[in-house]
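Service request form, structural biology core

Requester: graduate student, group of Dr. S.
Request type: structure prediction, single chain
Budget code: on file
Notes: please return the result as structure tokens.

Sequence provided:
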Amino acid sequence: MEAPIKEDATKVWLRKNENYTNNRKKYLSIFNNYYDTKIKEENFLDAAKILDVVGTKLSYHYDYDSAFLNTINNFNKKYRHNVPALKTTFVDSYLANYYYDKGDFKKSCNYFKNITLLEPNDYKSCYEIARAYYELSYVYFGMGKQNLSLEANQKSLEYFNKIGDIDGLGSVYSNYANIYKAIGDKKRAIENADKAIKAFKSIDNIYDTYMGLYNKISVYDYVQDSRKTPLIDSTYQAFKASKYESDILKIAIYDFKVENLLRENKLIEAKEILDELKPIVEKVDSDNWMQDYKATLVQYEIKNNPNHSNIEAIKKAIPILKDNEQYEKADLFYSVLKKHAIQNNDFKNALKYEEEKQIIGDSLGNIATRGKIVELETIYQTEKKEQEIALQKTTILNKNTTIALLASLFLGLFLTVVIYITRQKQKKLRLEKQNAQVYTKQLLEKTEEERKRIASDLHDSVSHELLGLKNLFEEKNDITNNKIDSIINDIRIISRNLHPIMFDKIGLKSSIEQLVERAQSVNDFMVTADIDYNNSLSTNDELQVYRIIQEALSNIIKYANAVAAKITVLEKNNIIYIEIKDNGIGFNVSETLNGSNAFGLHNIIERSRVIGGQAKIVSDKNGTIITIEIKKT
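Core staff response, request fulfilled:
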């Protein structure tokens, strides 16, 4: 791992989330001063970097400050052209999220598309493009454009797979859950929701784990699964017990909890939660979450007093939602209107709202039967003309049978096409991954051959020449001899680091033991090795294992402030298990891997992948553990 580049104190301060949450006004003031200074210095790259940091933070907190928005727009118009395109994707990302929150999905799409048109050239740019495809997929989903949503999500999956970003893959699985939910594939929707939760849990991402649970509840809600109610209760209790601080999670989870309480007629408890949420929703100041809160509040009012509920605001919002193609939100609002109509025994309007809801459902991609329309139609016609019920039921039943058959045929055809396209893309992705793996392996092998040649030249030529030079001195000069001995020793160390000269003869186990012995003698550092290995790998693969351990040990010595480390190599059945463990200060794995100075860690991950293994890095204040499992071929 390379030594981190020192950033100036102000930039470091602005990166810390607690500085924003503790005093937002001070945070933005310090940002503005720093940014203005960089603009005056015409240091546009640093100005862009700090805009990226602060813009990401504000978007995360749904804080679309008007002054900051003006700063972004001003930078976009006047200075953006001075900075490479891949360094300014934050502009499009911030504006896309801003317009999404304000309900303008079309503008949001256009800004996300700007990012996806770029070609990545490093880890960060690849991440930004993957993220843009993910966000674009989510916007398309809300607009009911499931074919475009599926395409964008697949591209996001490809990019996140390239960089091995577990957090990003979890987000992609969440999108798949939404897409399958919309087209009525309940099984796949729930499977992908579970995959998302599992991915987020594996990297201890608490926020997105709860968002994954929220997404799974939404799937249950949409497909009317009875498991929705207990999942809401268990998620609510777990979130409260965790004492995790997040306004957005509180709004999302508590909103569903209120629905449960209303279903159980626990109006007092529901009102208490709504009152608790009100100042939080106002503080967050997000149009998106405010609409959800208002919808839940109206549902409470309908239960509490159907004749005095504020239903007009919901009615007025629907045309705007439909104009902006916010079909998922419109579906929610029609559900609220239908509940209000049923509560007031207004079955005529209840029928109308259900029909509108079904149209919205089709816009979202859901090809469903019209059972609920039949039910409401029957109740409404009973109030009007009881004598016509039998004839109407027969007519509607025949029509629904035809619709159901056509819908099933269309759904089957659609899913077949989707599955075929998805499998073709997955096949292409696998081939690309295999080709990249072969290329990387060949590159590493060529690198090792060149290292071996240089090491041999240093050892056999330069070192021998120096020994000959030492013997030519007629006068025995201790100072000269000591200096030449020191140079010879340095050359031997360089040669050993380039390539362990005896590696081909003594093998992996003895080479690791020598590496451990040198690390202890040179660095006054305790390292132990527990090796149970039967030489089952090829020499080239063994060399990659040696390089992984060498890189990990070097990182521990340079950065961990550890007093001890242990290396374990265990061969059991068809698995070779490697563990490098230290008792150092640890580090934030996700943050470090996403940074620009994590070459050493990526080197470990890539070398592991080349020899058919998978590296897992876990770190906290008690130390770091790197584990690698290699399947023998």
